[in-house]
Amino acid sequence: MDSSSSQPEFDYLFKLLMIGDSGVGKSSLLLSFTSDTFDDLSPTIGVDFKVKYVNIGGKKLKLAIWDTAGQERFRTLTSSYYRGAQGIIMVYDVTRRETFTNLSDIWAKEIDLYSTNQDCIKMLVGNKVDKDSERVVTKKEGINFAREYGCLFLECSAKTRVNVQQCFEELVLKILDTPSLLTEGSKGLRKNIFTEKPPQSDASTSSCC
């Protein structure tokens, strides 16, 4: 039997990229969204990759979500994964000021440098709102950053799953509402991003980068 026959049918394949400092909870967000579970995980080594099939906006979608390492030594390694991404999720930890500061100092600059889709949709996510007593970055600061850099914005908690689903759904709905991102080979199987697999030495299990 053809192995492809067992895969769900879909209208579009979207490539999403998660970026941000090490320890902000990117991998935990991804695990919470794709598996409905939460674990305190060790940092990602290189890049991780998961697939989720969803029905959003009346479309059947295949989401290929890349979870990149936040450590500086992996920056050149992960830069190639920006290629062809229709959506980028910028994650910071609301309890760690430097992870928010680095959004403009490091991560926004990387998007400008490496992203190949001019209309790529950006989502700013403030994670770990379950630790409200430890919060040092206000929601207002997140809103202002999102306005300045043209991002969607949500605060969430990978641990309690508050707004995790909404984060990915709002991003995907905006992609669906952007015609240029639907006409560059995203339809059906014509866009095969699975040729961009991580080198063997970079593969890792899911982790909270």
UniProtKB/TrEMBL annotation:
It holds the Pfam family Ras. Its main location: membrane. GO terms for molecular function: GTP binding; GTPase activity. It is found in: Cell membrane. SMART domains: ARF, RAB, RAN, RAS, RHO. Keywords: Cell membrane, GTP-binding, Lipoprotein, Membrane, Nucleotide-binding, Prenylation, Protein transport, Transport. It is a lipid-anchor. One of its GO terms (biological process) is protein transport. One of its GO terms (cellular component) is plasma membrane. The keyword 4Fe-4S does not apply. Intracellular vesicle trafficking and protein transport. Belongs to the small GTPase superfamily. Rab family. PANTHER family: RAS-RELATED PROTEIN RAB (PTHR47977). This is Uncharacterized protein. It comes from Jatropha curcas.
